[in-house]
Amino acid sequence: MSSEATTTSGITTVYQVTGMTCGHCEGAVSEEISAIAGVSSVKAVAATGQVTVVSAAPLDDEAVRAAVDEAGYELTGRA
């Protein structure tokens, strides 16, 4: 099963992030990923560690990894 899906609003990719424990964590991760060119929406859920990203085109996983790292968390891969 692919963790990437195409929708009418773009490509949805779900990533797994470790270290998020609260709403502040979700906001920090969302803010950094939102800064990546082409990203239209980010939803981070601390309880599951999943971050759902909608973008115009497939994202470079290393760019997402760098954004998550900048926020102070660790991207473990695609969910």
Structure description:
The protein has 79 residues and is of the alpha+beta class. It contains 2 helices and 5 strands; from the N terminus they run ββαββαβ. Strands 1, 2, 3, 4 and 5 form a 5-stranded antiparallel β-sheet that branches. Strand 3 and strand 4 form a beta hairpin. Helix 1 crosses helix 2 (61-71). It is globular. Residues 11-76 form the HMA domain. InterPro entries: Cu-bd, HMA_dom, HMA_dom_sf. Pfam families: HMA.
Taking all Cα atoms into account, the compactness measure Rg is: 11 Å
Class from helix and strand fractions: alpha+beta
Quaternary status of these chains?
A: single chain
**In percent, how much strand structure appears in the residues?**
35-45%
Tally of DSSP β-strands: 5
* Main pleated-sheet profile: 5 strands, antiparallel
Q: Could you name the ranges where pLDDT drops below 50 across 5 or more consecutive residues?
A: none
Q: Which word captures the global form?
A: globular
Structure annotation, total helices: 2
Distance between the termini: 10 Å
- How are helices and strands ordered from N to C? EEHEEHE
Tell me, rounded to a whole number, the average pLDDT: 93
Helix content: 25-40%
Pfam families: HMA (PF00403)
Domain HMA: 11-76
Organism: Streptomyces milbemycinicus
Protein name: Heavy-metal-associated domain-containing protein
